[in-house]
């Protein structure tokens, strides 16, 4: 297609202000409409008005008995479409010239087969403004000669591939494709449509696809079924993700060459056709096909199948028994198949399996035994099997297993014995195994283990002693509430997370841990006796409800990055704290009045003093004036006077000195939120700024606000928690393109949240920080 457009460039002569008519000529099915459509999509934004009149020979046939009435009717349709005014009325044939003589327009008249059509809509070049281009497609070259059209492109080459790519463009217009768009393209082998939802539509369906297709890729395919005239014999790949398909086709079709089929996220897909002829199928992706109830029961398509993805098929009730005989299967993903109540046995037939995901099968009560040879298995995910009564026997060979996820298995009291023999294991995830009491001594065999995650194992009391996991990089024991003794299971640790444990002291032996650089701890007065740990404590979590002030020795934590003061209700002041801090969270410290400190780190990210209603003015001023790369939050009922430009609601304008306009300016902004429904706490803030571009540094949490120019998203940051009677303060940088900067602060909830957003901007303010000449 690119070659066609390159050949048309001299004919279009876009740099010229002359009005040009360009003809595209060729027999039916040669691709004239496709060439014209691609040219239109590429060029239309450069014209004041544009219109694509498709299939004129079929859609605009003569409805009247005389030529004048026919022309009047066609001209009215033409003017209605190019001006986007459905109720337009014209009384004479001079309206096109009257309305468009000063407009630069792009007109495509597709499928012209009668002179009267050109006479009505584009008889003369002087009807249109300078720089206009009129493209006409026809099978009848005599029409060009009759109308004096000399710039003609002959579409003589048969198409073998078409690629419509809307994915990298901000496409707002929906493109309607004729039901006969591909009729006659008998040599078409590759057809690709890439783009967002609702970009392309087939209002009258699709009557025909090439009988020689090898590749069919169409994201968001808009039909419920492929066209009836569809030859599958040569197909190698079908990729119809996010489609509206309910089924592919009726009956059995030959699929001897099919290797890849992707129907993922086709939410309405209820069934698959008979795939018994797809004996060379390698990959089948049905992820998130939430209406799919069953797979084809005919054997054949699993003979050479290597990857089967059924993740998120929440209506799938059972699997065909022959899935268990798929000896070539390498990846099997059944995660979140929440209605699946039974699985095939895992025996020697799965010798090629390298990845198995059985996570979050909420209807599954019992797992089949793992008795086969799993010599090639690298990843095994059994997380979130909430109704599983007990784990089955694991007597197979798991010697090459690298990643094992047993998280959120509430019935897991002890690890399966095979874990101690998985000598190549690198990641072991036991998050929220709430019944797990201890780890076996055999875990010391895992000398390649790098990550051991035990977050939320609330009954875990003991870890093995006298072992040294030589490769262990991170050990996470967060919220293992009963754990009292410091874990000494590896001298190779880099990260150790002990927040929420009963561990109060750090042994001096850590001085010999050469790689140890990151320790998160819960505050204890006994830490004062552990100065050897001061340089590795990066996170300090204080949840002492009785503490009134932090001791001064906390300032000696020279590498502290996060200070979390969790609802310290009696805390009155914060002393001088380490300059290394980047995050300070003091949320709901209701007695906090003073900040006897300064924030010296120029790279501080976030200051959260939400619900600290007793802060004195000095503390408030310090928070407001401190520069952050993300945001600061503190109580407040109105935007402070520190912000020199203020306004009610979410909009304000700054007029700049026209004689000295910098290229960009940096501002500190402040917003105050109001909630029109007290039950609505799910929102995020979108900030737009006309004629400018804004930049921020990082994201924070899942609550996002997005900086936009028009509809083009450029960066995002988060505001959390979302509260009324609070000030949110952040910095933004904008390119200056005019003497007027318009700030429009808006609130928008996350796209995946259902329901109306009731959060609004109550007040806003900005102050200029700097400018770049």
Automatic annotation (TrEMBL):
Residues 14-147 form the NB-ARC domain. One of its GO terms (molecular function) is ADP binding. It comes from the Eukaryota. PANTHER family: ADP-RIBOSYL CYCLASE_CYCLIC ADP-RIBOSE HYDROLASE-RELATED, LEUCINE-RICH REPEAT-CONTAINING PROTEIN. Keywords: Hydrolase, Leucine-rich repeat, NAD, Repeat. Residues 634-732 form the C-JID domain. This is ADP-ribosyl cyclase/cyclic ADP-ribose hydrolase. GO terms for biological process: defense response. Its EC number is 3.2.2.6. It is an enzyme of class 3 (hydrolase). It catalyses: NAD(+) + H2O = ADP-D-ribose + nicotinamide + H(+).
């Amino acid at each position: 297609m690119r070659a066609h457009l390159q050949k048309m460039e001299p004919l279009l002569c876009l740099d010229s202000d002359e009005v040009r008519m360009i003809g595209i000529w060729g027999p039916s099915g040669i691709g004239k409409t496709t060439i014209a459509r691609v040219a239109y999509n590429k060029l239309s934004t450069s014209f004041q008005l544009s219109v694509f009149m498709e299939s004129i020979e079929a859609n605009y046939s003569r409805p009247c008995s005389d030529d004048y009435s026919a022309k009047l009717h066609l001209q009215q349709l033409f003017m209605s479409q190019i001006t986007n005014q459905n109720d337009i009325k014209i009384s004479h044939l001079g309206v096109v010239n009257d309305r468009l003589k000063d407009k630069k327009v792009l007109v495509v008249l597709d499928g012209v087969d009668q002179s009267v059509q050109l006479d009505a809509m584009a008889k003369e070049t002087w009807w249109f403004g300078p720089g206009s281009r009129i493209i006409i497609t026809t099978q009848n070259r005599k029409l060009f000669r009759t109308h004096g059209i000399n710039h003609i492109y002959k579409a003589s080459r048969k198409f073998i591939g078409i690629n419509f790519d809307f994915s990298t463009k901000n496409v707002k217009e929906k493109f309607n494709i004729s039901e006969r768009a591909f009729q006659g393209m008998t040599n078409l082998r590759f057809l690709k449509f890439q783009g967002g939802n609702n970009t392309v539509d087939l209002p009258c369906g699709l009557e025909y696809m090439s009988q020689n297709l090898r590749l069919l890729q169409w994201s968001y395919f808009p039909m419920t079924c492929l066209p009836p005239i569809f030859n599958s014999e040569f197909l190698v790949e079908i990729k119809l993700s996010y489609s509206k398909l309910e089924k592919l086709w009726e009956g059995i079709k030959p699929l001897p060459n099919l290797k890849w089929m992707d129907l993922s996220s086709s939410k309405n897909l209820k069934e698959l056709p008979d795939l018994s002829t797809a004996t060379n199928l390698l990959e089948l992706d049905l992820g998130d096909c939430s209406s799919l109830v069953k797979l084809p029961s005919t054997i054949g398509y699993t003979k050479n199948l290597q990857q089967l993805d059924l993740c998120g098929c929440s209506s799938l009730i059972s699997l065909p028994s022959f899935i268990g005989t798929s000896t070539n299967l390498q990846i099997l993903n059944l995660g979140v198949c929440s209605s699946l109540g039974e699985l095939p046995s895992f025996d020697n037939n799965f010798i090629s399996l390298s990845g198995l995901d059985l996570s979050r099968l909420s209807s599954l009560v019992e797992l089949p035994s793992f008795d086969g040879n799993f010599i090639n298995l690298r990843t095994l995910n059994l997380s979130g099997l909430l109704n599983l009564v007990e784990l089955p026997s694991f007597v197979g060979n798991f010697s090459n297993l690298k990643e094992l996820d047993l998280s959120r298995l509430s019935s897991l009291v002890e690890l399966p014995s095979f874990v101690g023999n998985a000598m190549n294991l690198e990641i072991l995830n036991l998050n929220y195994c709430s019944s797990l009491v201890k780890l076996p001594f055999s875990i010391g065999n895992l000398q390649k283990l790098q990550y051991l995650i035990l977050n939320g194992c609330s009954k875990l009391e003991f870890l093995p002693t006298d072992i040294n996991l030589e490769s262990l990089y991170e050990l996470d024991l967060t919220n293992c509430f009963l754990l009292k003794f410091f874990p000494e299971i590896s001298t190779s640790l880099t990260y150790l997370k002990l927040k929420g444990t009963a561990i109060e002291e750090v042994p001096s032996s850590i001085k010999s841990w050469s790689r140890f650089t990151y320790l998160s701890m819960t505050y204890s007065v006994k830490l004062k006796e552990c100065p050897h740990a001061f340089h590795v404590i990066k996170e300090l979590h204080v949840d002492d409800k009785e503490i009134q002030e932090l001791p001064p020795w906390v300032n000696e934590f020279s590498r502290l990055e996060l200070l979390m003061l969790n609802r310290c209700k009696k805390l009155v002041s914060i002393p001088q704290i380490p300059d290394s801090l980047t995050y300070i969270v003091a949320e709901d410290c209701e007695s906090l009045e003073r900040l006897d400190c300064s924030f010296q780190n120029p790279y501080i990210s976030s200051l959260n003093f939400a619900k600290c209603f007793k802060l004195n003015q000095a503390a408030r001023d310090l928070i407001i004036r401190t520069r952050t790369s993300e945001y600061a939050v503190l109580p407040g009922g109105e935007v402070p006077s520190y912000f020199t430009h203020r306004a009610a609601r979410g909009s304000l304008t700054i007029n700049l000195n026209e004689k000295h306009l910098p290229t960009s300016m940096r501002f500190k902004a402040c917003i105050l939120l109001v909630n029109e429904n007290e039950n609505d706490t799910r929102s995020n803030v979108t900030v737009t700024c006309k004629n400018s571009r804004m930049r921020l540094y990082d994201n924070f949490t899942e609550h996002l606000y997005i900086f936009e120019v028009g509809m083009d998203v450029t960066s995002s940051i988060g505001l959390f928690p979302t509260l009324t009677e609070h000030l949110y303060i952040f910095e933004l940088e904008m390119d200056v393109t005019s003497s007027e900067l318009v700030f429009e602060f808006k609130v928008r909830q996350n796209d995946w949240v259902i329901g109306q957003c009731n959060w609004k901007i109550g007040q806003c303010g900005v102050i200029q920080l700097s400018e770049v000449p």
